[in-house]
């Protein structure tokens, strides 16, 4: 029986060797029993290697050669609990293996007395609790192996152990498993407010088995961990870094572990407030659509307004603003801040077709709004200045032709990214506004869109210049009533165009700076609040300014115009007339039927009244005849 147990211990020990628990053993002598359940062997330096086969640890471990015991293995047993002070007499032990058990609890002072222990192997257990502070029990522990203990994370007591250099195989999430934590040399335990410095290449002589300490692939410090570690709660991994340990699974910045544990918490914190701000676009976009749809319906249903050149242009602008409102509602849901799991680079590479169609809607609305504002200004200039000097008027057919060309050109330009022309693309990172890019990279910007945006600003400046000429001419011709009346209308349109100029130029400039200098702006952000303000100013504010412009347009001209307000008040009357005209045959038939029924009823009543007295007279004659006949019979008797 003892021979069988000895062979079992020997084969188990060899298996541990094959797995790398011992990387070098020197000329072990024959195995002999050194305890009731353990066998030992010596190397050429007279160090003792022990292997024990037990089901549970209840009593302190004792050996005949405990002073020379160098390596001790309790691997591949059914141990569940490590009790207190179970290894008190093993002061010279340097390597202890408790791997491949079912250990769940390590009691306080379980390793008391292991003052020279350098490597502790707890791999492939079910560790849940490690009570107490093991620093005093194992003051020289350098390597802790905990692969295969999912759900257990080293606590602060373990991370503060002064000589601990490696914690191998830590699993703290489904994305970060079997990660090695290596102590950065010369960097002892740090507080959360301390900053990491530069460190030299680490090469130490320690034990991994009996070899050297694992090679450090990268130095992950708080500065390299990600931006602004003080402002973001990065969780467990940040605690490791603060204690001076470098997670080697973070060396690959494209790994899922780094992304989930570092990038996502940062972006979640960064996007939180802008995402809440974008929720306001639901209400803003809804109001824009309702108000401008009302303006468009009133103009289309009024013959008087349909024949007015200015209101035809106002109707075109209302249609443009409706498109801006639709984009506002869509961007409230599909903005970049709604998904904190995606980095800017990934967004640029994986934009969906949704952004393309959203960008088309926005671009069509903005391009047509710019040209419609210019046409409103030119129309006022022609009416007040040019046609006062030479007789003439703007023809409706000519205006409609120009509007059709403007809308056709806007749709064509907005559709270029859809067909891949000039590699133009809409990107969600820039709120699907204009086709600013020609590729998947942030720096692949389009000079075409930049030039077109500059032309739009120039067109607004031309409009403002024309209004200055209009007002100067109106002041010189103030005695003419017609010019004064047209000038008042021009002032209202001037307010509209000026508002469009401000609320178009400001967000356009912000967008251009945000798009074409994005990398430089990121580098200039010195704090987390400044970084968040950058995304608000460059992402949320331009879209909001465009939407406020579309929201204000109905109030700046149509709702202030006397004729438009009169048409609004006449809507109930026109609805009644329309309903009456639509249902006139029904009403006429019903009225004819009612009159016919009344006539028949009246005729019947007259016949009934004329028939009743005649019947009454006939009845009285019959009664008199009967009386006379009775009297005659009485006389005869």
UniProtKB/TrEMBL annotation:
GO cellular component: plasma membrane
Coiled-coil ranges (or none): none
Protein name: G-protein coupled receptors family 1 profile domain-containing protein
Topology of the protein relative to the lipid bilayer: Multi-pass membrane protein
Domain G-protein coupled receptors family 1 profile, chain residue ranges per copy: 291-557
GO terms of biological process kind: adenylate cyclase-activating G protein-coupled receptor signaling pathway; hormone-mediated signaling pathway
Compartments in which it is found: Cell membrane
Residues annotated as signal peptide: 1-20
Species, as recorded: Pocillopora damicornis (Cauliflower coral)
Gene3D superfamilies, sorted: Rhodopsin 7-helix transmembrane proteins (1.20.1070.10), Ribonuclease Inhibitor (3.80.10.10)
Main location group: membrane
A Pfam family the protein falls into: LRR_8
SMART domains, alphabetized: LRR_TYP
PANTHER family: G-PROTEIN COUPLED RECEPTORS FAMILY 1 PROFILE DOMAIN-CONTAINING PROTEIN, GLYCOPROTEIN HORMONE RECEPTOR
KW Phosphoprotein (keyword) present: no
UniProt keyword list: Cell membrane, G-protein coupled receptor, Leucine-rich repeat, Membrane, Receptor, Repeat, Signal, Transducer, Transmembrane, Transmembrane helix
InterPro entries associated with the record: GPCR_Rhodpsn (IPR000276), GPCR_Rhodpsn_7TM (IPR017452), Leu-rich_rpt (IPR001611), Leu-rich_rpt_typical-subtyp (IPR003591), LRR_dom_sf (IPR032675)
